[in-house]
Amino acid sequence: MHTTSVALVGLGSYLPPQRISNEALCERLDTTDEWITSRTGIRNRHWAGPGVATGDLAVEAGHRALKSAGLEAGPGAVDLVVLATTTPDNPCPATAPDVASRLGLGPIAAYDIAAVCSGFLYALAAASAQITAGQAQRALVIGAETYSTILNPTDRTTNVIFGDGAGAVVLSAASGQDEAGLLLAVELGSDGSGRDLITIPAGGSRQRATTPAPDADDRYFTMRGKQVFTQAVNRMTESSQTVLDRLGWAADQVDWLVGHQANARILNAVARGLSIPAERAVMNLDRVGNTSAASIPLALADAAGDGSLTPGARVLLTAFGGGLTWGAVALTWPDIVAA
Ligand code: UT7
Q1: What distance in angstroms lies between residue 263's CA and the mean position of ligand 1's atoms?
Q2: What single-letter DSSP state applies at residue 130?
Q3: Of 85, 233, 286, 311, most Cβ neighbours within 10 A?
Q4: Per-residue pLDDT tens over the stretch 30-40
Q5: Per-residue pLDDT, 178
Q6: Among the three residues 146, 174, 202, which one is the final residue of a domain in this structure?
């Protein structure tokens, strides 16, 4: 039986211009550059300015990904938009239809995915499954976040970690089995019993915006860092190993490990657990921080831009986030220029 393959054919990214250094955060929070760099590896992050929403970043990254794929933003460019985000423009409706409309893509299917930091891998899985099922030929998959809008300004732990940004890829139906860029394996998982480890307590149906008004702090993003740390290492290592086993890849056959840029110590531990040398783990969190659903496409754009990712390279993506959710995806790198 003939089965449709799915190939990555374009990659784009966008960071809002305002860069926030560790030193800038030290001016208003009880923290130090030494603590932030030694505990997380982060030195800078970008935050969107007032009035800039997630959809604005997503449109920029979407434009660039289409350009990288050799497509004009306009009707017929793609027939599906999937947007992963924790910070949609509004609680209702989803942000993806507006992004599709602003890119002039026509009346195509467009929806959001809420899987926090694993969102981009969930979005890749959903879009590639729709292509494989013949429901779409080409999809724009975006991870975009403005965490600066949900951080509690008094919470030093989350403020130093999270950044804003957007990254996007174009996926396309492909017939060949051996062309570069093919998605080769997808593995996803979740454990809702850990829902309180990463959460915005208010604003949903459990703690409504109506009376009694929720505690102001409950409207902000919260994370129990220590518990999350251990889970992140274990889940990303396990799901990556599952994908490697499924493909019959040994650790030394992985050219690049592109993990969710949560924390340098987490990424090093995952690489160690998989017996992949740390030099083959892509790391750009020093410049962008943890950008949640945008993290993996931003890391890919960085590694493609500096020439690390070369056509045919074997790439293993892995992420972990609120939900709890996690996943891993394997692909071969395509012959593209990131925009
Ligand atoms: O993206 C989704 C997944 N997210 C993650 O994977 C994040 C996982 N967690 C982490 O990356 C780490 O747990 C953190 C970076 C959040 C925290 O690092 P840690 O080494 O686990 O620190 P900790 O929470 O155990 O805190 C150690 C100390 C505490 O003080 P005491 O109790 O030892 O006196 C904290 O209050 O560091 C303190 N602390 C800070 N100190 C200076 C916490 N945040 C800061 C800060 N500056 N920004």
Answers
A1: 10
A2: H
A3: 85
A4: 999 999 999 99
A5: 67
A6: 174
Whether residue 176 is predicted with pLDDT greater than 90 in this model: the reply is no
Distance in Å, CA 177 to ligand 1 centroid = 45
> Which tokens belong to 269?
């531990």
- Tokens standing for 117? 């930091």
Identify whether residues 109 and 149 lie together within a single domain: yes
Q: Is the pLDDT of residue 1 over 60?
A: no
Residue 111 Cβ contacting ligand 1 at under 6 Å? no
In DSSP terms, 290 is beta-bridged to 162
CB of 229 closer than 6 angstroms to any ligand 1 atom? yes
315-339: average pLDDT: 97
Residues 43 and 60 in one domain: yes
Q: What is the largest CA-CA distance in the chain?
A: 63
Same domain, 158 and 199: no
Cα gap 198→212, rounded to integer Å? 23
Please tell me the distance from the alpha carbon of residue 129 to that of residue 122, in angstroms, as a whole number.
11
- Per-residue model confidence (pLDDT) at position 101: 98
Q: What range does the domain containing 43 cover?
A: 5-174
